[in-house]
Task: inverse folding
């Protein structure tokens, strides 16, 4: 079955950097668009970043543009979330998601467009 396993979360000071990873198994990775979402305590889950299946198209939430990037590695079946200039408001559980698609260039920005989810990894940014 499909499994998504996030790693790389932790505690970091404001202005610092972290790289999250999401290792996928049980699927043909290059047939899936990938996304990152986050959920802060007491708040709804929100979109962070997305990458298309294979042409490298990306989208970002306005709140993270210029600070976060979402590269993917097909040989490693892994998508990353590279985060720099972290702010306390970035504190949340970060979850990766996967969606099977025939569209090589489309990104998906809403929760209900994704088929599979990881368990999440906590990111805490101290001020």
Result:
């Amino acid at each position: 079955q499909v499994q998504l396993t996030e790693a790389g979360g932790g505690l970091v000071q404001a202005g610092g950097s972290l790289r999250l990873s999401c290792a996928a198994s049980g699927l043909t990775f290059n047939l899936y668009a990938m996304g990152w979402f986050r959920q802060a305590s007491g708040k709804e889950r929100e979109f962070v970043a997305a990458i298309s299946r294979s042409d490298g198209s990306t989208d970002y939430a306005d709140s993270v543009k210029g600070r976060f990037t979402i590269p993917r590695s097909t040989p490693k079946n892994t998508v990353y979330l590279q985060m720099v200039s972290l702010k306390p408001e970035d504190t949340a559980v970060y979850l990766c998601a996967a969606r099977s698609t025939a569209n090589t260039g489309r990104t998906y920005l809403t929760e209900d467009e994704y088929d599979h989810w990881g368990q999440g990894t906590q990111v805490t940014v101290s001020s």
About this structure: The two ends are 40 Å apart (CA to CA).
